[in-house]
Records
---
Amino acid sequence: MHKIIINGGKKLEGEITISGAKNSAVALIPGAILCDEKITLANVPNISDVDALEDILTHLNAKIKRKKNGELHISSDTIKNRKIDKKLAKKLRASYYFMGALLGKYKKCEMCFPGGCSIGTRPIDLHLKGFEALGATIKENGDMYTIEAEELKGARIYLDFASVGATINLMFAAVKAEGTTVINNAAKEPEIVNVATYLNSMGAKITGAGTKRIKIEGVKYLHSCFHEVIPDRIEAGTYEIIGAACSNNLKINNIIPEHLESLNNKLREMRVNISVNDDSVYIGERIKDLKPVSVTTEVYPGFPTDLQQVLASLMTQANGESDIHETIWENRFQNLYELKKMGAKVKIDGERAYIKGKTELKGTEVYATDLRAGAGLVVAALLAEGTTIIDNADLILRGYEGIVEKLRAVGADITLK
Ligand code: UD1
């Protein structure tokens, strides 16, 4: 396990370029299985979650070429629909996308319950109910699932919760089904639009992605395509928050600003000096008196749960009490126990947390309990006086391409060991 070591208190100046979105890439890569020809994906982030998906595709005998320029070439004509065992499936949550992709292409998938960060119980019942509605039967044997259909038939599906993973998985399972599928109460996240655009550029017939009602007319064949991964809004948001904490003029490039409106709105409310351009955001010098704010996590376009833990570290610098209401994941305040070790004044009460500032954070040894908790600790360590050692930093590398190099290039004193 790696550690990230940060000597805090440095002012950050310069430019940071955002990589391709993890949560898009981890769906687009398994989605390549549905294509009957070759796929080229561009702007694929070099993160360990992508390595884990590559391992699964290799196990399935797909042909993959990963280029230094961020392109990934995938041919699935050699695929063998093998069982995906615990060791491969548990590496990441997004391994669940192989369920929809293999079911959609071969009408069968055998795989273990997915892994991922421990931020809640993370069930997949909505995915499974949707597969059943399309005609699949599901057998569970411990952690192993066999999902099989003689024929997949379009259906009307209502999601009890607008789940990102279930919406994408059901698009995968329905894209080659016979007839029309309608997903109601679909998730509206930008990654869903990115996946629908990808499938449509292979010849799929999907409309309504980005709204609550997605319609999929099944097609028989999906041809080759070139597709670009959208910029990572969570990585971008993380660097915006880092800018708000430590900027001495920081420009963040390759952003789609409309994906970040809820965060930008909160940062302005905190009195962060932020200006938004067409595809970049500029954060001016940090002002001393940040205002406390209230944040409730919601599905897109609400405030993203994936930025809540990152913003919590900045809240320690506001004059007064900020609060967070986490409505998506039930176990997403682990980072606050680590922040406490650095001197933060926090109180946790069920799905709510209260952070009282302003606190001078002190460097110490802390533990990244999950990916975004780790990113929050990076923010805290950059702010803190002295040295912070972040243990279990491999979790951070799952989702942030070149985080150490990107921060060092703008003046941070940061190393990976
Ligand atoms: C995706 C993101 C993750 C983000 C989350 C919410 C990926 C790879 N990950 O995760 O970073 O935090 O969206 O924006 O894209 N639920 C059920 N049953 C299900 C599925 C989900 O009850 O079958 C519940 C979950 O327990 C959770 C909520 O729905 O409370 C959100 O889950 P979902 O949108 O599915 O998240 P993921 O797709 O796993």
Note: The pocket of uridine-diphosphate-N-acetylglucosamine is lined by residues 23, 26, 93-94, 120-127, 161, 163-166, 187, 305-306, 328-329 (CB under 6 Å).
---
Amino acid sequence: MRKKYAAGNWKMNKTFNEGQILFSEVTNMVKDELVNPNVKVVMAVPAPYLSSFSKLINTDKVSIAAQNCHPKESGAYTGEVSVGMLKSVGVEYVIIGHSERREYFGETDEFIAAKVDALLAGGLTPIFCCGETLAQREAGIHFDFVKGQFTNALFHLDADALQKVVIAYEPIWAIGTGVTASSEQAQEMHKVLRDHLASKYGQEVADNISILYGGSVGAGNAKELFAMPDVDGGLVGGASLKSRDFTEIAKSFPA
Ligand code: PGA
């Protein structure tokens, strides 16, 4: 059975003290309340907090993630953080290719592909984000666009490597807007993407890959989304900043 994920993306929110409280609350609630052994809770916190917060983890149901990394091992890349650095402070997952990084920081598929390679070489799990704009959806090119993002950033991998990647489909029009894709829209895209993976790697490999949905996931809509056969969890922004809401999302998977 594919692994299921409730992944929180804090983005650029919370001071150290606020974050410490939130992180501890979620960890404790998840430890006490989450009973599904196939669900992993991941929290992607601001980079300065990674080292400290990784020590607050008191259950293997929770892992800590970074929100970005640089593909090079070391060197003159002011302000950047390498995979080895993240690994050395207990990070297990790294979000890459988020639409905010693609849009505001000009990240290309090629650069993201290099991050995928660096993470896999370092033994960390990439959470690879993809997704279309509203204009692309309205023009009817959304399936081809997101399939292209896969082809450009993932299809150089062999099957073993690909199966170490977690995918997050996040339609840009649904991020931070309160407009969630319907569970049917999410399922439709996830199925298209899984079929796209199957076309290159075969069905068995495609069936092993967790594809999360992101974009205004909350405690009120997670159950419906996670009930879809190809939706393996959520990448959650706003609602991951509230411990009770995020824990409820983690508990929203079918038994
Ligand atoms: P949101 O963000 O849940 O606030 O829409 C999701 C994301 O950007 O990962």
Note: The longest strand covers residues 4-9.
